Amino acid sequence: MRNHGDRNDRLSDLLAAASAPARDHELAGEQAAVAAFRAARLTTAPQRRRHKMLTIKIAAAAAAAFGGIALAAAAGALPGQHREDPKPASDTTAIVSSTKATTPEHKPDHSASPSPSLKGLCQAYTAGAGSEHGKARENPAFSALITAAGGADKVPAYCSDLLADKPGKSGDAPGKNDTSPGNSGEAPGKPGAAPGKPTHLNR
Amino acid sequence: MRSAAGFGDGGEISGVAWSPRLPSTAEEVLTSARRGDEDAFRALYRDVQPKLLRYLQVLVGADADDVASDAWLQIARDLGTFRGDLDGFRGWATTIARNRALDHLRRQQRRPVVLGTVDDVAEPASREDTAQSAVDSITTDAALALIARLPRDQAEAVLLRAVVGLDSKAAAKVLGKRPGAVRTAAHRGLRTLASYLEESPPPGKTPQE
């Protein structure tokens, strides 16, 4: 039987061996980890921008609603998109009639609030133009824009004029069809949810 | 037996040094990495990865490399959201690695490795080397293989303290236990390891029957 000092020495040696300096093969994944780190840096920035963009859209839609557009009523039809008559013309009519209940006319230069909101809608509309343009046009959120432009076919020209005053934002709009304010709450919230559940730690 | 073996109440054992800590400048490395500095991230990787890998080796055996890779993907992705010091980072990273390991084990529907599997990933020459070596040159893999024989709670407690370098409180956080429970488990683990060593001379030889 060994003495206790020997026993402790051996235990110390064992722990020292278990925590010995790194061996080369243990660091074999370094490049992959750094690549993941780099990729994570690259993707977080655009995500934040997109989030910001969506926030602008939400703000725009909200402003439009308060600007006299009956967006609240229309918003009920947003998620399902099960509108009976998706033609822009009918949207325009519906909105114009409800608009008249509160404000006689809806022009960008008529009051202070519609102007920035219409810019926001234009940005959203332009962003959606690349992909599913027609679908974006159906979105009731754009009714205000169509109304202001004087018709769905005049929206592009109207928006280019409007955005020409203050360029910059329209350029970096994502090409996704995320123009519906009803969807906007979902996507940006996800990246924060960590699958590894370290949430209780420092987060 | 316990006192004679030199165990303290805290699960410590006289003459046994836990893993050393990085100097305080390491905090600057962490800060830089959080801001996106790749070299700083590299430094963190080199500090933490061997610890994580050895811990994972005992938890999932030969799949440790894959699980560690998964863990680093998440660490790289979420580092920007981490708040805390370097010790906190080690604990945070270990928690991620452990969760990935437990996910892996659930997927595999099998129990944690208890014996032998560590040898699968050991360097080919190591066993021969250790067989003829003296007390002071037990290999890392042989040591991990011995720790892997412990009941899992003891093995984890010993590894988190001795290999990862966490204190009892941080280890308890990783394991979702109270610090006292971790101290007890670490203490029992060390005592059991000592008895393994007694029953299986020469030292360094893998403890297979």
Summarize the structure in words.
The complex is a heterodimer of chains A (203) and B (209). Chain A is rod-shaped. Chain A is 55% helix and 0% strand. Chain A contains eight helices and no strands. By secondary structure, chain A is mainly α. With 209 residues, chain B is mainly alpha-helical. Chain B is 62% helix and 0% strand. Chain B is built from ten helices and no strands. Chain B starts with 25 loop residues before the first helix and ends in a 10-residue tail after the last helix. The N terminus and C terminus of chain B are likely disordered.
The ordered string of helix (H) and strand (E) elements of chain A is HHHHHHHH
Helical region count of chain B? 10
Largest sheet of chain A: none
Weakly predicted, low-confidence segments of chain A = 68-114, 130-134, 167-203
Which bin fits the share of residues in helices of chain A?
55-70%
Overall pLDDT metric of chain B: 79
Judging from the principal axes of the Cα atoms, what is the shape of chain B? globular
Estimate the strand proportion of chain A.
Answer: under 5%
Radius of gyration of chain B: 17 Å
**Gap from first CA to last CA of chain A:** 52 Å
**What order do the SSEs of chain B take from the amino end to the carboxyl end, as H and E?**
HHHHHHHHHH
The N- to C-terminal Cα distance of chain B equals 25 Å
Give the rounded overall mean pLDDT of chain A: 59
Gross morphology of chain A: rod-shaped
Radius of gyration of chain A over all CA atoms, rounded: 28 Å
Instruction: Estimate what percentage of residues of chain B fall within beta strands.
Output: under 5%
Q: What composes the largest sheet of chain B?
A: none
Instruction: Decide which structural class fits the backbone of chain B.
Output: mainly alpha
